[in-house]
Each structure stands twice: as C-alpha cells, then as structure tokens.
Amino acid sequence: MDATRPLSNPRLCYRPLVPFEPTLRKQICQAAAHLYDRGHGAPGDGNISVRLSERYLLTTPTGEHKGQLEPTQLVKVRFATGEGVDGSPSSELRMHLAIYRGRPDIRAIVHAHSPHTVGLTVSGHSLEAPVVPEAIQALGGIPTVPYASPTTEAVANAVLPYALTYNAFVLERHGPVTLGASLPEAMARLEVVEHTAQITAIGLATGGAEPIGESEASRLRQLAMDAGLLRSPDAP
User: Fold this and answer.
1) Are 48 and 58 in contact (CB under 8 A)?
2) Is 92 a catalytic residue?
3) N or C end: fewer C-beta atoms under 10 angstroms in the chain?
4) Tens digits of residue pLDDT in 63-93
C-alpha cells in the first residue's frame, strides 16, 4: 500500500463506532443514575450528551431526576439547530453544542455538580495544578473556567477556549465538565476530577495541598502522551 496515497474517505476510516441508539439511550440513563448514586449532584443537577451521528445528539432532559431516567425520556437534538426532536433538552445544551462544534473528536460530554470540585471553586482553589500524579497523567490539567450565569450563552462562550485544549475543566461555582471519545471515557474522567478534588480538600483541611511542581508535571504529561494516555495540546 502506498503510504503517500490519501485515504479515499478519511471520515469513515477514523470515525469511532457508536452503539445502536436504543443501547446508547440505556447507557446514558445508567451513567446518569451512577452519577446520582455517587453523590455528584442533586436530582435535577448535571447533564449528559452523546453525539449520535453527524446530524443528531442525544441528551438528558431538563429538570428530570437524573437517578430515575428512562430511555424514552432522553431527547434527540438536531445538531445544526439545537432543536429538540422529541422533548426539551438539557438547559446547558448551548455549552454542549459549542464543544462538539469545536472538537470533532469528542463524542460524549458529562457535566455534574460534584461537591468537592464545586466546593474548591467556592473557596477560591483551583485544580489546574493537581496535587496527585494520576490526575496529570489522566487529564494533563484541570483548569477553572471563570463564572458565567448557568444555562446562558455566556457559559458556551467561556467554555470553548478551554474545551479546545483540555478534556476536563471546572465551571466556577457550577461543577466539572469532562469530554471523551466515548461515554465511558468521559465518565471516567469526571471521576478523576472529583477524586482529585476530594484529595485536595482533605489536604487543605489537614495542613496543606501543595501542587506537583511544574517540572515533574511536565514529565508526567510527557510520559502519558508517550503511552498514548493523554492527547497532546497541539494535536489537531
């Protein structure tokens, strides 16, 4: 095979497989219930979306109990217009659409109101320079997005510069957002954010939480990129 010859259809070659829609609906409901059971928010808090195709997204509905969702309650949304086909989508849909449009490699987004993560932003602490190596190797960094009124266009505008570089970030006073090539990946990243926040909060409460130095953080990021665990910030 001629390595210099362009692929006839690069889109088909690189597009990840997406589960059949009914299966994906079940997975989103299971993920939402998991977040609720793990204490990542009150009943109506947070939202999950998955890129169903080039034309549609699936998202959690607005205002419904995240621990009790049924597959039929999820909302199919037209990607081009943001219009809900079969219900009222998440109130943070603008943010989700902005991220998907800016990051074609992303197929799932999870947003929660995880208590330790939100609590640190309330007290003025950031996770951008993590205190544990696992967070750096899994996520690279976890910056905090300055506060914007939830559900407004301002959130989408504030988030996009961070989403273009990071796969996890924290909305000040509002909670973590994680991105993934699949829903399980985005969910796992959210657990890393909250676990890191919990360790940081314990450290602060018991004497201090000194971030890992930049030289060691750079080394850990490079090791993660070499192992294929972390996307390079310069990756297209």
Assistant:
1) no
2) yes
3) N
4) 899 999 999 999 999 999 999 988 889 889 9
DSSP 61: B
Distance separating alpha carbons of residues 59 and 18, to the nearest angstrom: 15
| DSSP conformation class of 135 | H
Backbone phi, then psi, for 108, in 5-degree steps? Answer: -150, 145
Cα distances (angstroms) measured from residue 151 to each of 106, 120, 174, 175: 21, 21, 11, 13
Cα–Cα distance list, 156 to 90, 97, 103, 106, 127 (Å): 13, 8, 13, 16, 21
Number of Cβ atoms within 10 Å of the Cβ of 76: 19
Q: Which two tokens stand for residue 10?
A: 């690069």
Place of tokens 């003025």: 124
- Residue 103, phi then psi, degrees to nearest 5: -130, 85
Identity of the amino acid at 73: Q
**Given the residues 21, 64, 92, 128, the one annotated as active site:** 92
What is the per-residue pLDDT across 91-136, written as a single tens digit (0 to 9) for each?
899 999 999 999 999 999 999 999 999 999 999 999 998 899 988 8
Is the separation of the CB atoms in 18 and 53 below 8 Å? yes
Q: Which residues contact 90 (CB under 8 A, 6 or more apart)?
A: 47, 49, 59, 60, 61, 62, 75, 96
**pTM of the model as a whole:** 0.86
